[in-house]
Inverse folding.
């Protein structure tokens, strides 16, 4: 393998290497096979665990309301607790206040994979702590 | 042209590990050349994320078949005659290199983060790995297509211009011309899409440094993998600058091309904040610098 090579005009690689693979090439192949088998294994594992779980959602609203310029920013996080992806997930927030009109907010999330969490904020002009805040998922589409 | 110094001939085989490393690097570079443009396609991410796992296996299998067919005539190693079984082994290696490169690129562009669910990661990796794996299988012919360089030369305007320094300078200018053409070609096709602002918006501030490093590293790797760092080869090509200087200047050329294309398509306006200008230019600069490096090889 590490024999000194007589320098000559022939291209260096062509003459010797293709008759048998070098140790380095076998190392490459083993690493490549491990990577690909690992990928196939992960795909099969994912298929096993997620195939029969339709999308389901859990919405959490944070208590840490931020006030900037007289507006109330209410952070929320939505998690797809199912296994399959959902598209166009519609999150609505309703703030029911006594005495004044209700405030509503809407948020559409393009893609929400299984077990994925996405976060955002609703913005209200009234203090949500002074009323009844309901945040829920209204609809989604299957891909 | 065919004569080269003895030390450059014995060098690649002096160490099989170095030779193998160069082959893998060449494959990876070929993968990035083909894969980066498709990486800037939002539909590929979303389709990959929404695909059924068994379909992903079908895609992976089809990739292996396609790469296997290519490996019969091409490949990322220099080997010219091959046992059919060795072709199969090499195509498995090519697909694995493609998968690794696609994963790295997706992480670099923040399409895969620690918060990304497994199924989404798998879908994105498998779909993005297709062009990367094909690029790996085409690496040898892509990167070494220009062994004998037959470039058009124009007669000097005055006899004074034939001095060696000036003709070297002219060759260097031709190289930067080639980088500009490659960069503009890629930047032109990506600049009008919405992926650039989308990707730029999702990057944490310091991540831009990583993008710059990757652009420079890939650009240098492309030059390196195609053997342009070989001193004798460079002298023969009449290159004036060191590979690092050339890479840096070519990156600046790519950034200028990105800026020009983004302004041309009115993706950037004077009213936009400077940070948006910076991030968009750097994000588009990544494929542009790869296009520039490809241009330097091919033209």
């Amino acid at each position: 393998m590490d024999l000194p090579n007589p320098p000559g005009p022939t291209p260096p690689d062509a003459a010797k290497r293709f008759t048998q693979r070098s140790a380095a090439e076998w190392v490459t192949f083993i690493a490549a096979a491990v990577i690909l088998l690992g990928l196939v294994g992960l795909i099969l594992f994912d298929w096993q665990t997620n195939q029969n779980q339709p999308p389901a959602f859990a919405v959490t609203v944070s208590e840490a309301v931020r006030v900037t310029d007289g507006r109330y920013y209410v952070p929320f996080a939505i998690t797809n607790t199912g296994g399959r992806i959902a598209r166009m997930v519609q999150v609505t927030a309703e703030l029911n206040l006594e005495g004044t009109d209700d405030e509503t907010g809407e948020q559409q999330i393009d893609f929400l994979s299984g077990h994925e969490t996405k976060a955002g904020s609703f913005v209200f002009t009234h203090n949500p702590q002074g009323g009844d805040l309901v945040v829920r998922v209204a609809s989604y589409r299957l891909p | 042209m065919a004569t080269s110094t003895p030390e450059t001939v014995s060098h690649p085989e002096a160490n099989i590990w170095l030779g193998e490393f160069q082959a893998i690097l060449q494959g990876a570079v070929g993968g990035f050349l083909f894969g980066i443009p498709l990486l800037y396609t939002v539909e590929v991410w979303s389709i990959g994320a929404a695909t059924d796992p068994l379909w992903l296996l079908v895609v992976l299998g089809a990739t292996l078949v396609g790469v296997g067919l290519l490996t019969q005539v091409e490949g990322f190693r220099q080997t010219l005659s091959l046992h059919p079984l060795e072709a199969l082994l090499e195509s498995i290696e090519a697909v694995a290199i493609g998968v690794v490169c696609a994963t790295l690129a997706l992480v670099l562009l923040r399409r895969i983060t620690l918060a990304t669910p497994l199924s989404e990661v798998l879908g994105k990796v498998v779909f993005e790995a297709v062009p990367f794996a094909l690029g790996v299988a085409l690496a040898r012919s892509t990167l070494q297509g220009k062994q004998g360089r037959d470039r058009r030369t124009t007669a000097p305007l005055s006899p004074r211009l034939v001095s060696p320094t000036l003709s070297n300078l002219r060759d260097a200018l031709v190289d930067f011309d080639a980088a500009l053409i490659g960069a503009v070609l890629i930047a032109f096709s990506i600049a009008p899409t919405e992926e650039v602002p989308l990707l730029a918006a999702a990057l944490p501030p310091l991540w831009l440094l990583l993008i710059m490093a990757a652009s420079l590293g890939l650009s240098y790797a492309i030059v390196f993998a195609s053997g342009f760092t070989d001193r004798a080869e460079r002298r023969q090509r009449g290159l004036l600058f060191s590979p690092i200087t050339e890479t840096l200047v070519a990156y600046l050329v790519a950034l200028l091309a990105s800026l020009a294309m983004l302004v041309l398509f009115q993706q950037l306006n004077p009213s936009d904040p400077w940070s948006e200008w910076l991030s968009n230019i750097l994000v588009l600069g990544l494929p542009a610098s790869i296009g520039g490096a490809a241009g330097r090889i091919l033209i």
